[in-house]
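Fig. S4 source data, part A: sequence.
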Amino acid sequence: MYDGVAKFYDTYTADLNHEKVADFAEKCFFKYGNPGIKAVASGQNLTKGDEVGGVNGEDVENSTLVLDCACGTGALTCILGERGYDMTGLDISMDMLYTAMDTAEAKGLEILWLCQDMCRMDMYGSFAAVLCMTDGVNHITTRKRLDAFFKRIYNFVDEGGLLIFDFLTPSHFESRVGKGGNVFYEDGEEGTCLWTSRYNEKSGICEYDITVYQRCDVDDNEDAEELFTRTDDSIREKAWTLEEITESLTAGGFKVRRTCGSLSFGKVKEDSGRVYVVAKK
């Protein structure tokens, strides 16, 4: 999933503001979180073993451990790592994680990266907060797997810990894709990406076909023709309603603390295309 587009994903999704998403997460940490992540969000910048932060994994109340599910290229993971949280990034695509590792190394960050299916994740400990942003939940396309995801997450969240995520609603797909589908095209110096989408309103499933043409090096031979490699990928997303999400969350043991229609904590409206949810164990 996204293997072919991994190296170019951040370029093709430049409209995503990960800094603002990180700001939103930190505000939720400060308002609803346990003392450890609340202290970091307030600017104390705790480290392992200090008097307030305790030792991560042992002092649950003051843990600063945060898991970023469906982390992709690790943009949000690295931002929060730079802000002082002890981050773990999880994604099903190893190619995406390779890109994330390169980014973390360039920034001098020590982040644990795990290649796992988030609906079947298996951890050695629990986290003060779990994130799943930028419609990661929409990649879960059946109610059975959605229930499994929330129940699985519940096992790895500290008591009083948070689950913060967003999801795309039917309104988003109806307005952005529609019955006739849509085509996204990006052409740059390093390659070209064609991204077509088809949405079925009845099933709530949106299918994406992604083709990437990546420029290859030709041994520095100026007379050689330009060569490109082609990679094809197919992605499916499910449009979820707030009612479906809430039912599944509750069945998984979580309590919904806040739902928002924007990163500025605006109310969820009937036509909200993306909804943000803060849940607590």
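Fig. S4 source data, part B ends here. The mean pLDDT is 88.
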